[in-house]
Amino acid sequence: MPIKIPDSLPATAQLEKENIFVMTEHRALHQDIRPLRVLLLNLMPTKITTETQILRKLSNTPLQIEVELLRTKSHVAKNVSEEHLETFYVSFDDVKDEHFDGLIITGAPVELLDFHDVDYWDELTRIMDWSKTNVHSTLHICWGAQAGIYYRYGVEKYELDEKTTGVFEHRVVKPSSPWVRGFDDRFRAPHSRYTNVRAEDIEANPNLEIIAESDEAGVYMAKSTDSRNFFVFGHPEYDRETLNVEYERDSKTHPNAPLPKHYYPDDDPTQPAESTWRAHAQLLYTNWLNYYVYQTTPYEIDAIGHEEAADDE
């Protein structure tokens, strides 16, 4: 099934080139089924790249999804044109009276700041508070996961001695969870961050559970036991070249920037990187959409926030 996005969004051409079924707004208007409404709060500076990466993951499902792009008003984006933001993005005031089946909160390059020093922290917490009554299920990614698990459950983040960057092996620790249905026992996933959360802090909270983790990179997937909030502390949406682009950027300002681990063949950055995580990344998004959004969200979208909490998984 297709993903429905604005006809002229830059990601549209790239996704169509990859033979991903993108439905035009005109065609979607003539369908009788209700699409899932997903709100994407894009906090990354490279907005168009992140849009494309996440829309690619949302598109490869048997569901019709209508995506709305959300930005913060309290932060001025420097790496994307104001025209793009005005054309394709909405602000929280535009959607605060609406309901959504899903919300995705992306990462952001602000990990070394205290949460309360981030210039849009108050706006972000307002959105997270609003999601309790207006969103059925929320997926938090990387810094968005650290921010979400801190604000919602009090789990702290800690600065690392060295940036965690690379593609790491993980193991599924709760194979009965539908979120990892179809996963291998061990799988690979990208990380890129200067801070982490600790497994013991998550395990100490009875409202949280760990789903997958890595010996090298730490906790990767965690969720609330009521299946309303999901946390991914890596970047499953990353393209093959993303870590390479980040490494080249970091190396310009930090000559001793750490080489992404297990990413380049023989750890040689002159060789093209290999993509070894796309299948599990796709399952992560597809399973979230299928088992925790589509199958449990109310058909009448205005009923979101009034329905019974999902059964523990």
From TrEMBL:
Keywords from the UniProt entry: Acyltransferase, Amino-acid biosynthesis, Cytoplasm, Methionine biosynthesis, Transferase
Enzyme class: transferase
Presence of the UniProt keyword Cell wall biogenesis/degradation in the record: no
Gene Ontology cellular-component terms listed: cytoplasm
Record site: Important for substrate specificity: S192
BP GO annotations: L-methionine biosynthetic process from homoserine via O-succinyl-L-homoserine and cystathionine
Active site: C142 (acyl-thioester intermediate), H235 (proton acceptor), E237
Localisation: Cytoplasm
Leader peptide range in chain numbering: none
Binding-site residues for substrate, renumbered to this chain: K163, S192, R249
Catalytic activity: L-homoserine + acetyl-CoA = O-acetyl-L-homoserine + CoA
Pathway(s) annotated for this protein in UniProt: Amino-acid biosynthesis; L-methionine biosynthesis via de novo pathway; O-acetyl-L-homoserine from L-homoserine: step 1/1
Sites annotated Important for acyl-CoA specificity: E111
Record EC number: 2.3.1.31
MF terms in GO: homoserine O-acetyltransferase activity; homoserine O-succinyltransferase activity
Entry-linked Pfam families: HTS (PF04204)
UniProt protein name: Homoserine O-acetyltransferase
Name of the encoding gene: metA
